[in-house]
Amino acid sequence: MADESNTTETQPPEGVREEELEPGILRWLLDSPRRRNAISPAVFDWISERCGSLAGEVVIIRGSGDDAFSAGFDLTALATELQASKGPPDLTLIRATRAMQAANATFLASLNGYVIGAAVELVSACDLRIAREGASLRLPAGRLGVVYHAAGLARIHAAFGGTIARRLLLVGEKVPIEDARASLCGLVPAAELDGATLETAQYIRQQSSISVAGNRRLLRALDRVQSLPADLLESHQIARQQAYQTIAGIKPEAVRET
Description:
alpha/beta, 2-enoyl-CoA Hydratase, Chain A, domain 1, 6-stranded mixed sheet, 10 strands, 45% helix, isomerase activity
């Protein structure tokens, strides 16, 4: 009898489906249409685990339907995490995007509609992005009172540039994807999105796997090349903790001056 232990560990939970479009090309479909493809902690945990077993594939990430890539973190689950978790409530997102950056796979985001909140960071962790006309980006961190974690903020900055990052995080603007054209490898009519995405994945698969892996590793490192002072990172983390305590209705802990 075959050992099924490895396969059962990575079975997708509710809210995501994995499809093999052709050998070496997978599609992860964010599939919770009633919640506008919002992403639960269980889905982020699955992404973290699944990334460890990838072996050179191209992974397309897309939302189900024609309107929403994803509405971001499942806010119902986020409220539960705020009350129950001793760590940051976005820890599952942080682990998932970190795992994607370390994975032996090329991630291609297929933006079939609006991309909100945590989904913006998920898209930023992908190696390439292709979008349909009329898609958009939005980060409601300011409205929710969230201070974004440093690695995620840096990733968004690297993917979309400083001006787009500021429009998203400081202004809270809904940014048309056309304004972020430089961050995309393609911008196509909605009817052409799936075909153009698959064609890009096929081109990647036609390259030398050794070349793709080696160049991808360095390109990812270049996106992380800026290092921030330790004291700035520490104060940023304190601000994050206080923001989440406020959201959860907990009196923020006093910050000691040294």
